[in-house]
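RECORD TYPE: protein structure
NAME: Penicillin-binding protein activator LpoA
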Amino acid sequence: MLKMPRGLLATALLAILLVGCAPPGIVDRVPDDDPTYLLEQARQQEPEQAAISRLEAADILARQGQRTQALEVATDIDDQRLPVEYRLQWAMLLSELGESEGEPWAVIQAAQLLDEIEVPRDAGLILRERHGRALAQVDEHRAAALILIGVQADTDREALNDPIWASLSRLEGPELASMRDETDDLGRGWLALANLVRESGGDIERLFMRLDEWRERNARHPAARSVPEDLIALRELRGQEVRHIAVFLPESGPLAGVAEAIRDGIRAHHQSAAERNGGVQLSFLDTSRSSIDALYEEARNRGAQVVIGPLDKDLVTELENRDQLPLPTLGLNYGHGESNRAQGFFQYGLSAEDEARQVARRGRDDGHRRSAMLVPDNEWGRRVGRAFEEEWRRLDGTITNAVAYDPRGSATESTRRVLSGGRPDMLFLLALPSYARQVPPTLDYYNASTLPIYATSHLFEGRPQPLLDHDLDDVNFIDIPWQIPDAAVGGVEALPYLSSYQQLHADADPSVFRLMAMGVDAYELARRLPQFQLMPESELNGATGRLTRAADGRIERHLPWARFQRGVPQPILAIDLLGTDLMENGLPDSEPSANGQRN
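PREDICTED:
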């Protein structure tokens, strides 16, 4: 997990606080005090004194370098039991440990104090900055940006430019627009900068022309005085804008139907984005008629700069084992290898394994430790189930029972077996809609209605069917933004590439709509391949999720979460974990084919 630097000011202020403001008995203790003795004492003491003893133990552990244990102790302290003069010390210690140990939820927990007691200005600035950085780490970028802009308004610190920009650059237009009434002139300057970058559509020359104009109009703005590093890095891409894309897709054979849906998405989005894409040219080449090397030769002869495709998993595997490719390439699948070797080769697809790993991470973030698994008894189920189990165990979770079911049968017996293998506190479900709808009622029958269910996108057909999906109520699942627009924050109007969505969604068969969305994102990724090569930390908020690149060039999708309520998907957020509105804290007043694609 990313660890955010604290900066010299925060460090200096914290030192002042610890020396000058801490209650007696914490910093005055000699370094060889025994925290174990204090923790043992706490078990015998009244709640208020026990909380003080645990705080002292956490402080000693931190000063002795045992920071992981110190964080565990500080996190478990009930700060409501602490006298007021100790609560600030607890919050400063917990937030500092959470930040340094890469545990953002500890920082967020500490920042709740800002709403509960009056905090001195310098301490408040430290807590607010840490809070903003922590929110960014859990992908609450709107709240993070607002908090950090508020801190910058009080300090004028240019050092906050990069974290502010990192969050703003991950927001879509409607989210940016919704922030205008919640910030001041400084914030509105940031929003104008974010909008001009979004509207540049990947045209680097246009971007820097508009950036220079913005800096002239906002000469005193911190980002005008010191442009964020990510924007400066884009200068190296001048002259490398992608103007010609070759698309390698089959026009016949077993993957022709999948290819057609992806092709439709690429074409529709290309037409929709024609005004902002600067005249990008597309060349479609048939992989069912030529060898991959012949296709590359033809693409180069036509003047293509990058390639989208191929789709076939075996062809992707062949390419990932080469040292380099004739042109930068975005494969539309993932190879068989554990990693991608080829320089300039990116791989992108609708991977069920990626979804399973994301489900595992969310389940652990929600505090679950013992998961049961219900997956189909076939190659797909084994592959996706293995991905979930490996990630779950990596996160120190326990599998209570893994049940492989017959997709053609009833869910009654398999659900009973899930419950017979132990005491799970969640269920990982991999199932298509007709099977998935049987599972919650069966859990009810076996008196397990409160067992949380976490599922992949495969249980949702992609269109509202409240009567059919009512049986899925309270099931949590992930899906691409375009497939669950009503579960998106901001609704349909906040979707990425709204005009393309409206054009494709009007007549699309729900069974292929995800593939069309994949075509849209493939087009946008291809136009940004030089940027992803130069800046590996680049992200794309796309139709199929937030897209990032792994170290080996594989594109990873980060999907939004939804929960069925009355048969309709509704949004759920990371914020739900604490059951509080984190945005208020610290704000200033003012079944798939063998190729991994569903067909």
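COMMENT: The chain has three domains: 35-236, 244-347, 352-492+554-574.
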